[in-house]
Amino acid sequence: MAAIQRSEASGYAAGSDNAKPPVAAVAADVKAKLAEARVSFCPDPKTVGGKFTATFEKSPERTFASVNAGDEAFRVGGATLNGQFAKDLYDMGWQDARKYAAFHNKLFSSAATGRLVAAKGPVVALNPNIVAGFVRRAAEKVGVAFIDVFKNKLRPWHANNVAMVYEQ
């Protein structure tokens, strides 16, 4: 898993989901923060007593976005790592993992190829788990990356677990 960190401590960990800024403002804020992002990798799970890397850290030191190797239907669920994401998000009661497929498919079909595109308000509304979403679309479904920014109250384990990077 990869952690995406920013140089400043402020961000989506603070604040309330009750006072919602416009989707365009959230998207612009997230896009600006993505420009500052730096990538680091989680330690080998054997060094911390595990067999596999967890989908999300229980108490990350920095803002964290976990990478999910998705599937052609753009859903969260199924087998292997994508199935573990569904289990961790849905079974643990944080999110309704079934909401990602319709959102990802709509965002994919409405996005231009080859650039990062923010989801507009009606598309974001398809997924009640998120406050913002982005896609970098390839010509086909293979090579696509989504960034799903979670609502504050729906972050797994810790407030610093802010997003899922979904790749196909």
Features:
168 residues; alpha+beta; 4 helices; 22% strand; disordered N terminus
Given helix and strand content, the structural type is alpha+beta
Number of domains: 1
- Give the strand content: 15-25%
Helix content: 10-25%
Distance between the termini: 15 Å
Order of helices and strands: EHEEHHEHEEE
Helical element count? 4
Uncertain spans, ≥5 residues at pLDDT below 50?
1-16
* Overall radius of gyration: 15 Å
Indicate the multimeric state: single chain
Structure description:
With 168 residues, this protein is of the alpha+beta class. The chain has one domain (2-167). It is 24% helix and 22% strand. It is built from four helices and seven strands. The protein has a five-stranded mixed β-sheet. The protein has a two-stranded antiparallel ribbon with strand order 1-2.
Task: Give the gist of this structure.
The chain is an alpha+beta fold and 168 residues long. Helix content is 24%, strand content 22%.
Topology, pairings included?
Layout: E1 2-5, H1 23-35, E2 38-41, E3 64-69, H2 80-91, H3 100-110, E4 116-118, H4 121-124, E5 130-136, E6 145-150, E7 161-167
Parallel strand pairs: 3-7
Antiparallel strand pairs: 1-2, 4-5, 5-6, 6-7
